Structure formats: structure tokens, C-alpha cells
Amino acid sequence: MSPARPRPALAALLVYAPDPTPVEIDLSDNVNPWGVPPAAEKALADPRAARPSVYPNSDPVELRRALAAYAGVEPAQVITGCGSDDVIDGALRAFAAPGEKVAYCAPSFSMLVSFARANGLEPAPVPFRRDGDIDPEALLARRAAITYVCSPNNPTGTAVSMAALQRVIAGAEGLVMVDEAYGEFSGQTAVPLLATAPHLLVTRTLSKAFGLAGLRVGYGLAAPEVVQVLEKVRGPYKVNVLGERAALAALRDDVRWVRRHVDEAIGIRERLRVSLEGLGLHPLPSAANFLCVPVVDAACLGKALLERGIKVRILRDLPGVGDAIRVGLAPWAQMERLVVALRETLR
């Protein structure tokens, strides 16, 4: 018998495998180090109350209503998923045929390229502008079936101007997907543009600001017609019973808690920037809950920090940036430990 043969396009794909090394201070994943919102934690106190022996709601109506109220849209404009990357993957399957292009500014969310190739699509990167903003004309010149904009951008943290985003939306021939996984930290959202852009999809997650990364609750916001198409490719039971229960509790009772910690993270972001500049480093401008810091040798520096009990994300040879480390924000005591470790290492 001959072995099963995977599609040739998958040969170049790598399995997503972040460093599993346990450390005292993990700043590599950009999650919420302040923990779970109190109402969500209370909702999870008795897992049996969520009835884990039965399937979750295939259409989590209550959750869609709560997300709609939080985002300021109608429930019919909400699609849920197993993390926002699940919604992104579904949109690539639904709105682009094999061989068509996905345009984006590089570097950006690494899984976008993997999802595109896994779905038989052609990644079509363009550079960012010299000021760090997306380049609308370069993106539109790709004439892509899907144009992807990460706002704020991961892994650089840079903001996307509303003017540039509006130009992309006005000129795009296909779906425009705006990834707002870190949107709570930027003070800006593309959601108001949904009213006049039926080809716009905004993806979000409760993994970052809401502190529910382990429960994998993501969602998309779009015109009802787009949501209906995404429902066809999403598959059933994408939000598990515990995730739905915790998300509902956080959205109903703990949005103030979330916003308070977002404000704290933003203050720490600027305080950390000053400290890093004092060490001779030059973090990129960030509108997210992390800083991207260009360095000479990211692997060497990352290893040295790991030996001191601190994990950061190592970024090698980013287009337009070079080597860098990505540092997630945490309470200042942890940031102070990072600054001390960097000072010792750089010395």
C-alpha cells in the first residue's frame, strides 16, 4: 500500500510550535497576565454547571447578543469561532478560491500565511510604508480576493491609520479583513465602517484583553450576508461550554475590569518604552499590549533572558525590521525584572 500523500502546498508549512519551556515570567504570548475577569472566574468555579457532557450550542445566541452589545452592532452581524484565527481561516475558505491572492503588509500575523497556503491561496505580501503605516496603493495593486489588515499589527504593534484603512476598503475588489485581536489597546476600531462597507469583516478575540486565552473564544463582525456565508464553512460547536459560560459572564459583568487593566497595560507600555530607550534600545511605536524591540541577535538575547527565567518571543529577520524580540506587557514588577535582565545581558 502506498502512503497517504498530502497536498504539495503543505510541504512548506511548519507546525505552529511556540517554545514550551516553563519559566517564571512568560512575556511571549501577549495574553492577560492579570488573569481571568472575576465574574468569569466565578462562572468557571463549578465546571459541571456548564454541563460538559453535552454538546455546546451550535449557534450560541446569547453569546452573539452579548458580543453585539459590546461591539455596538446587531446580533445578526456576529459570527463566533474557536479563537479569532478560526474566523480568519473560515473567511479564507469562504471568500477566496484556490489560486487566488491574499494581500497583506509584511511582517504580520504569521498564521495568515499558513492558513492561506493550507487553503490553496497565494500569499501576496507588500512592504509597510516608511512611516510604519499600511500601504493602501500597494495592497490594492495586488487585486486580491482578500485583503488582510492587522490593526494594531502583530508582531510589530504598529497602528494602522484610519485614512489608510478607509482607502483600502474603498478600493478593494474582494473581502477586506481587519484583525483587531489587540484592538482594545489601540483606542481605534473599524467597526463603524461596517455600516457602509458590506465587504468588511472585523475579527476579534477574548484571548487578550479579556484574559480568556485558554478557552479560545473569538468572533467576527460583518454584514449579515457575510456572517451567513461564514456559518456555512465554520463547522459546528466551535465555542465550548466553558468558554461560552466564561465569556458571557465577562461581557455582562466585567467590561469595567477589562478596561481598567487595558488602561494599566497602556501606562506600563509607555513606562517600559522609556526604560528600554534608557538601555539604548529602540522599541517600535506600539498600539498593542506588547513592544517589538529590534536587536542585533534575537536568538542570542532570547536565550540569555531564558537563562534568567524570562521568556520573550524571538523574531528573526522581519521584513523591514531585522531581528527583534516581542515583549508582552505585565504588571510593573515583572517589567522591572525584564529591564534588569536586559541591562545585565546587554552589558
Care to describe what's here?
Helix content is 37%, strand content 17%. The chain has two domains: 21-35 and 256-346, Aspartate Aminotransferase, domain 1, CATH 3.90.1150.10; 38-253, Type I PLP-dependent aspartate aminotransferase-like (Major domain) (Aspartate Aminotransferase, domain 2, 3-Layer(aba) Sandwich). The N and C termini lie far apart (60 Å). The protein is built from eleven helices and twelve strands. The longest helix is centred in the last third of the chain and has 24 residues, at 255-278. The strands form three sheets. The chain has a seven-stranded mixed beta sheet with strand order 2-8-7-6-5-3-4, sandwiched between helices.
Give me the secondary-structure topology:
Blueprint lengths: L24 E2 L11 H6 L17 H11 L6 E4 L2 H12 L5 E6 L3 H9 L3 E6 L8 H6 L4 E5 L11 H10 L3 E5 L20 E6 L12 E5 L1 H11 L6 H13 L1 H24 L11 E5 L3 H10 L2 E2 L1 E6 L3 E7 L3 H15 L1
Parallel strand pairs: 1-10, 3-4, 3-5, 5-6, 6-7
Antiparallel strand pairs: 2-8, 7-8, 9-12, 11-12
Helix pairs in contact: 2-8, 3-4, 3-7, 9-11
Number of strands: 12
Q: What structural class do helix, strand and pairing data support?
A: alpha/beta
Largest sheet: 7 strands, mixed
Strand order in space, largest sheet:
2-8-7-6-5-3-4
Radius of gyration, taken over Cα atoms and rounded to an integer in Å? 20 Å
The CATH homology group name of the largest domain? Type I PLP-dependent aspartate aminotransferase-like (Major domain)
The assigned CATH architecture of the largest domain is 3-Layer(aba) Sandwich
The tally of domains stands at 2
Shape: globular
Report the β-strand fraction as a percent range.
15-25%
In quaternary terms, these chains amount to single chain
CATH topology of the largest domain: Aspartate Aminotransferase, domain 2
What's the mean pLDDT score? 95
Count up the helices. 11
